[in-house]
Structures are given as structure tokens and as C-alpha cells.
Amino acid sequence: MAISFYTDFDPAYGEVTQLAPLVRRVVAKNGNPFTWKGTGVYLIGRGDVAVIDPGPTMDEHLDAIEAAIGPDEQINHIVITHTHTDHTAGVAKLVARTGARTYGFGPHGPVPEKDPLESISFDEYFTPEEKAKIDKEWAEMPDELKREGPDTDFRPDVVVAHGEFIVGDGWSLEGVHTPGHTSNHLCFGLSDDGDGQKVLFTGDHVMGWATSVISPPDGDLFDYLNSLDLLLERDDDRYWPTHGTAITDPKPFVRSFIEHRRGREQQIIAGLSGQAATIKDLVPGMYAEVDKRLWRAAANSVYSHLLALHREGRALPLDGNPSLSATWRLA
Ligand SMILES: [Zn+2]
């Protein structure tokens, strides 16, 4: 179940890094427990440039994106992996600055009016000092950085379906629909990065530093696992995720993700053996090694597993209504 994460990443915020002849990156300084060290924005091509996921709205970050290209270059395409604010919040401002067209799978899926996560809390696991520190950091954090919130405003100018290409001067990006983290998640394939490497920009589908958060109802574990299988059918040399550094052993890495989820499912089944339990009961044991600030998000991932088990007739909520706060038992 162990995943060999890529934890060696020390981005120079606000500076452009040339990763390959056709690939540059600027990292935004919006690090938090969800974005790790910040949103990595990729610039594809020379002259005719595409930006993959502009990231947050901070002006100094958008300045850095514009400063990353030369005077004879133009950002003509803004390409979106998925509609979470740490990826898309800066789209409108970057469009205003550049006049670029936007590309994506489509708008965000339906979002419940009340955040289901409000029904669950792990506050009692924090010391008063930890709680005070977290509350202070939270109060000082700009709203858009607070969580990986859905962006329900984004509408792409150009809809990109699975297998369709966005074509620029000297490059093309292949849309690879990879629902799971969100229903509209796309990865983008570049068949040659200028160094002869076939690369895939994996957004939040496969990241080097952590597994994806799956938040029902838009996030779906069944889709996510199918979307991992889909990557195993490809022959990419490396992945560039939005958060973190290059993944240079794509297939073993993806296989370890699939194994990891199977392991989580086994933990849930073990946790429900001989007793009914809530998600709140299960999370602290299952995620003991993970930052406690991520436990509420982890609750969503456990919920996505339970929904999958429920669909397969293997687990049931005692009251008959699947929810984050239900008590669950094995069928
Ligand atoms: Zn995301």
C-alpha cells in the first residue's frame, strides 16, 4: 500500500523554470494543506503559448505568468484541467490581460447547497493550542485559498471532449477525460515536449505528493479508478502534475495508487467487521499518518469508498440513507 511519493520539490515562486524546450512552469505562492507547495502553472509552446490552469488571482502571480514569456510571444490559449478554484480562480483576470480563449471539458457538476462536510468535525483531536493556531491561520487566509472549492462559474469558450486536440503553432494538446477527482477533469497529452519525451499534464488526477481527494457527489471513486486504468493504457514517459514535481515512473506509480485505494477499501471493511461505525469513527485510525487538517477531506474519500461499496451491495447505512454522517455496516 506504500506509495513512493515525489517529495523533493522546492519551487522558486514567481520565477519561470524551463522544464523542456516546449514546457515552462511558474509556481504560485498559494501553498496550503490542499495545494501543498502551490499551484504549478505550465506554459506550453514557443511564440503561440498555452497556459494550463492559471491558478489563483493574486496579481503578483499573474504578473509572473506574463513575465514568463518573451516580448514576441502571446498567450492565446488557457487550458483547464478541472474547475477547482486553486486552478481556475485566475482565469477571468488572465483572459482580461491576454484575450486568450479558454478550453475545458465543461462546467462544474452540481454542488449541494450546504457543504456536507459541515456535518462532520474532528476538532476534539486537536489540542487547544493547535486549534488556536489553525483558527488564526484560517482567519488570515484569503477565501479563495481556503480549500479546493468548486468553481461553478467557469464556462470554457471551447469544449474539449476526450480524444480531441487543442492545436497551437508547433504543439498540440490531447484532451484525456479522467473523471474521479471531479467529473470534468481532463489530463492533457503532449506527444513531444521538444526533447522527444511524451508527457501528460495530470492536473490533480495523479499528483506526486499525495493521492487525490474524492468528494462526492461530483467526485466519484469508481470513475477515478477507471481513470487510473485509462492511464495504464497510455505510453507517457512522464507526468507533470499541478501540485509538485515530475513523475518519472508513470505506470508503476499509477499502479501503486490503485493498490493504495484497494488497501483503503480493506481498511474500511476491517473497520466495519463485527460492528457498525461512522466515517468519523473510521478516519482517525485510517489516516493517523496524515495531517489532521486533512481529515475532513479524508472523510469525503472514505465516503466515496462507502458509496462504491453500497452500490456493489457490500455496505449499508443503518438508516437506509447514504450520507457522510450515517452509521454504516457491512451487508
Ligand atoms: Zn482539484
Question: Strands, helices and their partners?
Answer:
Layout: E1 16-20, E2 23-27, E3 40-44, E4 48-52, H1 59-67, E5 74-79, H2 85-88, H3 91-98, E6 101-104, H4 128-140, E7 158-159, E8 165-168, E9 171-177, E10 186-190, E11 199-203, H5 221-232, E12 238-241, H6 250-271, E13 277-278, H7 279-286, H8 295-311, E14 315-317, E15 327-330
Parallel strand pairs: 4-5, 5-6, 6-7, 11-12
Antiparallel strand pairs: 1-2, 2-3, 3-4, 8-9, 9-10, 10-11, 13-15, 14-15
The structure holds zinc ion.
Polypeptide structure, described:
With 331 residues, the protein is of the alpha/beta class. The protein has a single domain (16-255), classed as Ribonuclease Z/Hydroxyacylglutathione hydrolase-like (Metallo-beta-lactamase, Chain A). It has helices spanning 59-67, 85-88, 91-98, 128-140, 221-232, 250-271, 279-286, 295-311; strands spanning 16-20, 23-27, 40-44, 48-52, 74-79, 101-104, 158-159, 165-168, 171-177, 186-190, 199-203, 238-241, 277-278, 315-317, 327-330. Strands 1-2-3-4-5-6-7 form a 7-stranded mixed sheet, with helices on one face. A 5-stranded mixed sheet has the order 8-9-10-11-12, with no helix packed on it. A 3-stranded antiparallel sheet has the order 13-15-14. A hairpin with a 3-residue loop joins strand 3 (40-44) and strand 4. The radius of gyration is 20 Å and the shape is globular. The chain starts with 15 loop residues before the first strand and ends with a strand. The protein binds zinc ion. Zinc ion binds next to loops.
